[in-house]
Amino acid sequence: MGTYKITIAGHERELEFFPVSDKLDIAAFIMFGDVEITEASAKELLKICPEHDVVVTAEAKGIPLCYEMARQGCKNYVVARKGVKVYMRNPIEVNVKSITTENEQKLYLGEGDANFIKGKRVLIVDDVVSTGQSLEAIEELVTKAGGNIVGKAAVLAEGDARGRKDIIYLEELPLFFK
Ligand SMILES: O=P(O)(O)OC[C@H]1O[C@H](OP(=O)(O)OP(=O)(O)O)[C@H](O)[C@@H]1O
Ligand SMILES: Nc1ncnc2[nH]cnc12
What we know:
- By secondary structure, this protein is α/β, with parallel strands linked by helices.
- The chain contains four helices and eleven strands.
- The chain has helices at 35-48, 63-72, 111-117, 133-145; strands spanning 2-8, 11-19, 24-27, 54-58, 77-80, 92-96, 105-109, 121-129, 148-158, 168-173, 175-177.
- The chain is globular and about 45 Å long.
- The chain starts with a strand and ends with a strand.
- 1-O-pyrophosphono-5-O-phosphono-alpha-D-ribofuranose (PRP) is lined by residues 58-62, 98-101, 126-134.
């Protein structure tokens, strides 16, 4: 446990880091509740992302960034869900395992969202990328829906994701090994 200072899109923040296992702590980056970082990060990412028709993320922590990038840019966004709701007809699904979650989860898109994505230029976004498995799961889901993925973007890259050339990101965050 401890703190870590970082500047994200010109805004300095002190992040706490938390244990995810007996060997590893991760700095917790929570954009929920931080309007300044969300707005500034969306603006900076849009400058370096390819042209797109729709932004796609997975619930939950990617939603504010996804919304804000759509608001400043293409105006359309879709959120992949972690559960099926009664109003989601004929959902398509993929498996996902994130560093922050012990069990495997699923990501779903209802028929309406899947049809909306079909044939469109899709930019996939998330707040943090660590193992990359969440972005890959969204990628698989968007591909199933028939979307044309033009890029994958995150505000922060941590651990193995640092230095990845296939992901557009603003800042790097370390993992803290014990
Ligand atoms: O690259 P990865 O190892 O997949 O880690 C990144 C993912 O982990 C976090 O989500 P989390 O699983 O905590 O879900 P939440 O947004 O619903 O809290 C984060 O918002 C990314 O989606
Ligand atoms: N450092 C982090 N903070 C919040 N969510 C995360 N998901 C993966 N790494 C994370």
